[in-house]
Amino acid sequence: KNVKIFKKLNFGFADLVVAIPKDWLDVQNMADLEEVSFEFREKYGRRMRVATKYPNLTESFFLSKGVSQFRVVPSLGATESYPFTGSSELITDITSTGSTLKANNLRIINDGTILKSSACIFISKKIAKNKFLNSLE
Q1: Which fold has domain 3-136?
Q2: What kind and span of H or E run contains 59?
Q3: pTM (predicted TM-score)
Q4: pLDDT digits (tens, 9 = 90+) for 14-50
Q5: Domain coordinates of the chain in residue numbers?
């Protein structure tokens, strides 16, 4: 609350996305994921696991889309490998091009973008009134 965006830079673009195995043909969007999550729980007796380095953003997004049958698995790195190793069923991760996801046989679901980001410079609101800084904008 005490900072503001000083300048948005035109590089470092990346999205936080929901990625699932390519062979999950029945899942195209978050509504499909919710349906599959109930079927998964009924079949295996547990909730689907979502590996991520962003547990709070992931949980908020899933719940806002009506997906409730999941459990967050904290990732310490190489999140895209979790479904392959059996550590999770799906992931949320940062991607710029999607090539790492594709290389790990994952795909982004249609409405699975949690947030878009890029490099920015932030400054304190207290110094935002500085004439020199304002001249740089």
Answers
A1: D-Maltodextrin-Binding Protein; domain 2 (3.40.190)
A2: helix 55-64
A3: 0.85
A4: 999 999 999 999 999 999 999 999 999 999 999 999 9
A5: 3-136
